[in-house]
């Protein structure tokens, strides 16, 4: 069963970008599903920061991404590429 990724971005007191969608993969663990969601969130954060930069609204502080799964946080500190065998 596919997991659901969800995130939202706020600026000041308003939410301006959000997502809730099924993941493209079937995760083998909760940690993997959380890691995939964090990755999607980080990709969106990079895109938003680039758009803000184009609008001359550069963000000097890092974007905080909150993840509540310790295993996913550990994976993010030492990612290992997934290898498929045939």
TrEMBL record:
<protein>
    <submittedName>
        <fullName>Retrovirus-related Pol polyprotein from transposon TNT 1-94</fullName>
    </submittedName>
</protein>
